[in-house]
Amino acid sequence: MDILALNCGSSSVKYQLFDWKKKEIIAKGMVERVTVGDSYIIHEVPGRETYREEYECPDHTTAIHLIVKILTSKEYGVVEDMKQISAVGHRVVHGGEKFTCSVPITDEVLEAIKAVQHLAPLHNPPNIAGIEAAQANLPNVPHVAIFDTAFHQTMPQSAYIYPVPYQWYENHGVRRYGFHGTSHLYVSKRAAVLLGKAPKDCNLVTMHIGNGVSHAAIKNGISVDTSMGLTPLEGAVMGTRCGDIDPAIPAFIQGLEGLSPGEIDNVLNKKSGVYGITGKYTDRRDIIEAAEEGCERSALALEIEGYRLKKYIGSYFAALGRLDAVVFTAGVGEMGWLIREKALDGLAPMGIILDKEKNRNTMTRKKETMITTADSPIKVFVIPTDEELVFTEDVAAILEDTYTDHMNFKYSFAESTFQRS
Predict the structure, then answer these.
(1) What counts of helices (H) and strands (E) characterise the chain?
(2) Tens of pLDDT along 13-66?
(3) Fewer CB within 10 A of the end CB, N or C, for the chain?
């Protein structure tokens, strides 16, 4: 049984084809700069050289067609016909309150996803486009939606209700939802293994740090709070998103600069975060290099990000009452030793004793590493995430009628014998 996992972002499409019987990745890759211009595909097959092709993708439908073309190519492909694929798993960023676990995509499910796309305007529309394009290319196989928000549906009301008129929640669904759920799920299960405990016995702070950034407070194996909110704009400092700010700022700037609500929203989502501070960079590697060369605003961006990360660790420690481990994941979390160091500096009184040398030597997307000292009461792990594996296992379990939900389902990566492909 071959399962295709698709992750359609605002300007990219990641894919992975997985042989469920052999538990092996057949191929994986990404189409970059979708809708932006100068788009291309990077296609990786184990044992072969990585293939890159320039291919203009003005929309996500074209990107899906390109993936199909490469997967079935005589020269670079891995399947003779797309009929070899048994099912497709789709990342869907926002599922609202309706979806608490992964589900087969029916007409009704697709309409429900469309009904909440205004809550994730940068993400749900490309997710929907990817679903519809994949259904057109693979009309006779099951398609499954895996929701970013589902993992966080265990939060109590005290964590997800905002202190605004309650009717906003009742009438418009205004509440905290949270995102990056599959990533937080994966690394929390892996952290439990590294701690030698069952997930239900673990209290964790998981920190997904990439261009988008979110954190989760996980108590007894389930999410009880998370940093992103109604939309992915709330929370930590991100690549281009502002995260937590005084909510009066947008109206204040609108009045001063005569911007429309749409223009303000665009600034907060696409021109803020570390990009807003530096004026030019979103990639933390560029920011670090610029800071080393004396750029004061780049140095400031690093200090602000590290400080905000530290505050989230402290606040979630208070919310949990007891903390077993902090986990860093995603591109910056896995590779950014300096940002991790700034986030953890001075936390020894709390019980986090960083091994600075080990932290500085941990820059990998493949290896799981503990970066605290052996005697640190609270451990800190760097765990490469694998959202596509979560997609694949959910899809396979739904096809085999063994799926329940993330709290009770036995994932392969939650076992001590698990090894990454």
Answers:
(1) 15, 14
(2) 999 999 988 888 999 999 988 887 889 999 999 999 999 999 999 988 899 999
(3) C
Query: Would you say 134 and 182 are in contact if contact means Cβ atoms under 8 Å apart?
Result: no
Encoded amino acid at 43, one letter? H
Query: DSSP assignment of 32-54, as one string?
Result: ESTTTSS-EEEEE-TTS--EEEE
Query: How many residues can be counted in the chain?
Result: 421
Same domain assignment for residues 32 and 125: yes
Arithmetic mean of pLDDT, 390-406: 88
> What percent helix, strand, coil does the chain show, rounded to 5?
40, 20, 40
Q: Which of 38, 81, 148, 324 is catalytic?
A: 148
Classify burial at 83, counting beta carbons within 10 Å of its beta carbon; exposed 0-12, middle 13-18, buried 19 or more: exposed
Longest pairwise C-alpha distance within the chain: 61
Same domain, 235 and 366: yes
Q: Are 221 and 341 in contact (CB under 8 A)?
A: no
pLDDT band of residue 336 (cuts 50, 70, 90) is very high
Tell me: the pLDDT tens digits for 288-314?
999 999 999 999 999 999 999 999 999
Neighbour tally for 110: CB within 10 Å: 17
Residues 6+ apart with CB under 8 A from 100: 150, 153, 405
Going by pLDDT thresholds of 50, 70 and 90, the confidence category of residue 121 is confident
The whole-number average pLDDT for the span 399-413 is 85
- Number of domains the chain is built from: 2
Phi, psi angles (nearest 5°) of residue 85? -85, 125
Environment class of 102 (CB within 10 Å of its CB; exposed 0-12, middle 13-18, buried 19+): buried
C-alpha torsion angle, residues 80, 86, 87, 88 (rounded to 10):
-20
Do 349 and 308 lie in one domain? The reply is yes
The amino acid occupying position 409 is F
Domain containing residue 308: CATH number: 3.30.420.40
Strand ranges across the sheet with 325-329:
222-226, 213-219, 204-209, 325-329, 379-382, 369-370
User: What is the extent of the structural domain holding 217?
Assistant: 197-382
Lowest mean pLDDT, pick from 133-137, 157-161, 237-241:
133-137
**Whole-angstrom distance, CA of residue 11 vs CA of residue 33:** 5
148 annotated active-site: yes
**What pLDDT does residue 421 have?**
66
Considering the entire predicted model, what is its pTM? 0.91
